[in-house]
Amino acid sequence: MVGGAVAVQSIGPAAAAETTLRAAAAKAGLFFGVAASPNRLYPIVGQEFNQLTPENVMKPDTLATSSGGLQNTSGADTLVNHAQSNNMLVRGHTLVWHSQAGALQGASQATLNTFIGNAINRWGSKIAYWDVVNEALEDNNTGRRRNQWPHTMNRDANGDGDYFDSGDTDVIRDSFIRAKQVVQAGGFTTKLCINDYDVEGLTVQGGTPNRKANALYDIVRNYRQYIDCVGFQSHFNDNPNSIISSDLQANIQRFADLGVEVHITELDIDDDLSNNDIGSGQAENYRKVVRACLNVAKCTGITVWGISDSESWRSSERGLLFTGGNGSYQKKAAYTAVLDELNKGRTVSTSSVPTSSVPTSSVPTSSVPTSSVPTSSVPTSSVPTSSVPTSSVPTSSVPTGGGCSASVSVNAWTGGFVVSVRVTAGASTINGWNVRLTLPSGATVTNAWSANRSANSGTVQFTNVSYNGRVNAGQYTEFGFQGTGTATGLTPVCTAS
Ligand code: G3I
């Protein structure tokens, strides 16, 4: 769609409610998956879920030899075959990780690259998503990379505090470049993801900015041409950095606005979140997480980290959707809440359907750096009090022939909003853009991404940043902003330069 009005797509409520998680999710346009082991492939796996993540058997400590070859692939094969015969997607988990590295512990980038090639090629397009890099960022909300292998290979050549510059070495960048090369050379449909925990909200407990989420955002923004998807692990518990914050949806949205798919990859929710910012009922907490994903079109999947509480890695938290075990399971209130929420479907703008103007086709044969981009700014206050959207109000400017047009999609809640803006080039490629819009009285922008802004209220001009000014004819790029107040009646006007 070039410059036309954006239609609001309301999927659901369904005429007849679906009775399994996978059917309800499919109707809403996302997958609902589970982490599984070869010895727990009970009927429920294929009945309730349409995506499968190997909980352990696709990790390097199982799969990798010290030279980057493959070994012990039978467990992974069992899971992949089971997924195929049950019409389930597979998420490969995981290629580069400081933990469970096995024989790869301490390996060079060259050896990691060998392993990446072997693993991706073995299953090809049978793997819909690969977690290429897992848990690259430090704990305790420092916003730093981990200081243990493989990240000890990183070099900040110019000492500016990041690894994004031309002379820098970055294991994240180099692993993704390798993975992308392999996918392209093989003609696979596999999408390449970065996955981490404690990155779910814009803020952590008490409204402190989530520096780990911001660091992940900067990585995705810098390496967008290699990264197709972002995983928020979503192990929610009483840790102040692991809570369900009310700005979960806004954070999903800001990543989605970079053009990547967002997935909730390892969901479990402690059944007693006494420190949780937004309440302690497990079923209600599940509902909030599912709703936050449903409200962002590019949030295309949710995976729970196991079937039942007793078989979970954190059984004491009783964090999953079923009780029971060994193939005999009972649905919990959390299950019913998730099913009900999925059956309500999405209410989102079609303007957010996954496609992107960001080139993904040209992968360098060597480690080509990308430019340094300033770290993102996230609001330190004005955290929304409710994540429930009240509207999705797209509008559009008039197409400007050879110039550009812009359309907006608004997710609003009581007292706040997130606006996604799509800039579409007309008949000619543009090399820069300016989007002007006027906010209603009382509305204030608190945070913007993928654009510079001239003001926080009234008439605001947004201009491209270094990496998204060029938009090919007929293609688009997107930016977004978050604010307080209301954001009704926005009419963006786009000027190309
Ligand atoms: O299978 C052996 C068993 O034979 C042995 O008797 C037993 C003794 O400890 O260990 C068993 O292996 C355990 C394995 O899980 C299977 O249950 C390992 O010790 C144990 O370390 C391993 O834990 C896994 C953990 O990753 C390791 O880091 C969990 O199952 C798995 O759920 C967890 O998954 C991670 C994700 O990959 C990344 N995100 C966090 C998530 C939870 O930690």
Briefly say what this structure is.
The chain folds into two domains: 350 residues, TIM Barrel (Alpha-Beta Barrel); 106 residues, Immunoglobulin-like. The chain is 22% helix and 24% strand.
What CATH calls the topology of the largest domain is: TIM Barrel
End-to-end CA span: 21 Å
Structure annotation, total helices: 10
Q: How many whole angstroms does the radius of gyration measure?
A: 22 Å
According to DSSP, the number of beta strands is 22
Q: What's the CATH H-level homologous superfamily of the largest domain?
A: Glycosidases
Ligand list? ligand G3I
Strand content range: 15-25%
Biggest sheet descriptor: 8 strands, parallel, barrel
Q: Choose one word for the global shape.
A: globular
CATH architecture annotation of the largest domain: Alpha-Beta Barrel
Task: List the domain count as a whole number.
Answer: 2
Helix/sheet category:
alpha/beta
Enzyme class: hydrolase
Active site: 266 (nucleophile)
EC number: 3.2.1.8
Domain GH10: 15-341
